[in-house]
Amino acid sequence: MEFFINILIAALLGGAIGLEREYRAKEAGFRTHFLVALGAALFMILSAHGFDGVLVTDNHRLDVSRIAAQVVSGIGFIGAGTIIFQRHAVRGLTTAAGLWVTAAIGMAAGAGLLLLASSTTLLVLLCLEAQNLLLRRFGHRHLDVTFAADNHEDITQVINHLRGLNGIIVDSFATEPKSATQPRNIVKMQLRLERRQYRNRILDFIGEMQGVDMLSVE
After folding, report:
1. What is the dihedral of CA 114, 115, 119, 124, to 10 degrees?
2. Are 8 and 35 spatial neighbours (Cβ–Cβ below 8 Å)?
3. Coil vs helix vs strand at 49
4. DSSP label at 82?
5. Cβ count near 104 (within 10 Å)
6. How many whole angstroms separate alpha carbon 46 and alpha carbon 40?
């Protein structure tokens, strides 16, 4: 019963972190964190108590930490699956670190250190929410803008104007030139803008230009 309570608390603590990640629409959500914490707690219990019946003599000693130690390295495979390199940006590092610490929380709960596991979960949630609060007020957001232009002069004018605006940084842009199947130039830009800047400002500016049409903003 004690072991069952430990893995139940581990799963609930992991699920609490997973709910926050689910709410933020991240790569790993409630089920992933729930299962990681549950599995880590079970491995911890097996490592510490699963071999009590094995005879230990002077010539043979049982390393009860061997299974638990593999959780630390094994969780890296799951965390690596949430990291994505896309359009010159790395995404998912925070979620991967969250899975790593979720496994540690599960192991602590499996070892019976429930207060330590609970306080660590609270610190993780405070860290994630404080980060979102600060970024919403002072940080930057990323914006992918795609528009079509008739000629290269219009493209140059749009990019130069955006670069001259305060609070907006043009990280990168790529142009797909006209072709037989594509009558206009297609430009894809990655922008960073301060949270107080609204994307409507960019939409209005591009919409006012002659020969330029907005295709998408993400």
Report:
1. -10
2. no
3. helix
4. T
5. 19
6. 10
Residues in the chain where the model's pLDDT stays below 50:
none
Q: Say if residues 143 and 171 touch (Cβ distance below 8 Å).
A: no
Q: How many residues does the chain have?
A: 218
Q: Which helix (H) or strand (E) holds 183?
A: none
Of 109, 96, 131, the closest CA to residue 7 belongs to: 109
Q: Establish how many alpha carbons lie within 13 A of residue 94's alpha carbon, considering only the half-sphere containing its beta carbon.
A: 16
For residue 207, what are the CA distances in angstroms to 8, 185, 198? 55, 16, 15
Over the stretch 56-95, which tens digit does the pLDDT of each residue have?
Answer: 556 666 666 677 777 777 777 776 766 665 555 566 677 8
From CA 75, how far away is CA 173, in angstroms rounded? 36
Q: Answer yes or no: are the C-beta atoms of 9 and 117 closer than 8 Å.
A: yes
All residues at 6 or more sequence positions from 184 whose CB lies less than 8 Å from its CB, including other chains: 148, 149, 150, 178, 213
- Is 0.85 topped by the overall pTM? no
* Rounded Cα–Cα distance for residues 74 and 202 (Å): 45
**Spatial separation of the C-alpha atoms in residues 1 and 61, rounded to whole Å:** 28
Q: Do 195 and 203 touch, CB atoms closer than 8 A? A: no
- Indicate if the alpha-carbon torsion angle 38, 39, 40, 43 is positive or negative: positive
